[in-house]
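Private note to self, pasted from the team thread so I don't lose it. Backbone tokens:
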């Protein structure tokens, strides 16, 4: 069940006794949680809403609360967070949970209580008896990641609601800077919406100024300096990353990823693939493919040079994990090799 359908059912007064919010997308988790909270009058929150973290609280405590009849109301709402016992997680913890007690509750839930399992995981362990019974008896709310087109639809909704126009290039940049993550994109969209209350327009420059750049975005600039063979500028930027305590292994991994992308784009482009098709095949944001194609054309990049650089970065990664040699020195040697 999608969150939209949950909201629709709740408005119609259809409230289930058991729910599982399953997925890693925080935006959907919060939307589902807030929709369920609307079932309980705000003045009754203190007495009829409970939240229990399974990393720190025994399951028995949460179930005892779930079995309690409502105070001054018709329904109790109990949230169970981090139910790791529903997954294949084998990490040892200092807390034990009575799953037999949960099995009993799932077979005969308290009618006046809505028990909600917030499971921020990609999937549950379907082999477990408790998971099978829960999924059989509960309404499962989908909270997983969505594709780019759906993210665009949600963003469009918030801008249209506020009667704000966002330029296509600006929307592309917003998606790229948030890596197509709905939660991040929606948070940034709210910030941009407040900024554009007077102008009712969001341009690319507004996104550049207001949306935080990820490390990957910043390393993209470093990649561009490498491709331009600007030794001093590239070395200076790398030094700045190290000064900001960025992990050399992580920096190298992102650089490798950028060169691998360039190799893939060159290969597909040479085979006659257009920008949109390349984005579809590689499952990469179209704007990033556009930038890659521009770099390939501007710097006349050859696949043999890109492969040589990529292999060099892979070699550096191994050395970074096994030597005390200076990361900055290794980057300088990489630059010199690429420039030749």
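Design output:
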């Amino acid at each position: 069940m999608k969150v939209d359908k949950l909201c629709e059912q709740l408005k119609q007064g259809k409230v289930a006794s058991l729910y599982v919010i399953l997925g890693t997308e925080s935006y959907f988790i919060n939307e589902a949680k807030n929709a369920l909270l609307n079932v309980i009058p705000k003045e009754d929150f203190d007495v009829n809403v409970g939240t229990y973290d399974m990393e720190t609280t025994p399951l028995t405590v949460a179930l005892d609360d779930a079995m309690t009849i409502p105070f001054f109301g018709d329904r109790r709402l109990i949230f169970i967070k981090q139910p790791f016992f529903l997954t294949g997680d084998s990490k040892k913890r200092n807390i034990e949970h009575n799953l037999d007690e949960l099995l009993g509750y799932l077979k005969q839930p308290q009618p006046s209580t809505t028990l909600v399992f917030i499971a921020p995981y990609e999937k549950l362990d379907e082999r477990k008896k408790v998971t099978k019974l829960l999924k059989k008896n509960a309404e499962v709310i989908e909270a997983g990641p969505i594709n780019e087109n759906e993210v665009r639809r949600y963003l469009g909704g918030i801008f249209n609601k506020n009667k704000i126009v966002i330029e296509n290039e600006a929307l592309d940049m917003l998606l790229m800077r948030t890596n197509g993550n709905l939660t991040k994109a929606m948070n940034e969209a709210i910030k941009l919406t407040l900024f554009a209350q007077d102008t009712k327009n969001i341009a690319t420059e507004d996104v550049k100024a207001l949306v935080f750049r990820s490390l990957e975005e910043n390393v993209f600039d470093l990649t561009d300096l490498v491709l331009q063979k600007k030794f001093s500028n590239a070395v200076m930027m790398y030094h700045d990353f190290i000064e900001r305590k960025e992990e050399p292994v992580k920096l190298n991994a992102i650089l490798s990823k950028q060169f691998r992308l360039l190799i893939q784009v060159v290969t597909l482009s040479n085979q006659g693939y257009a920008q949109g098709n390349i984005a579809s095949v590689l499952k990469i944001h179209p704007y990033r493919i556009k930038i890659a194609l521009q770099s390939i054309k501007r710097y006349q990049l050859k696949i043999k040079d890109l492969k040589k650089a990529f292999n060099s970065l892979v070699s550096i990664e191994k050395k970074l994990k096994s030597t005390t040699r200076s990361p900055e020195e290794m980057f300088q040697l990489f630059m010199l090799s690429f420039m030749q």
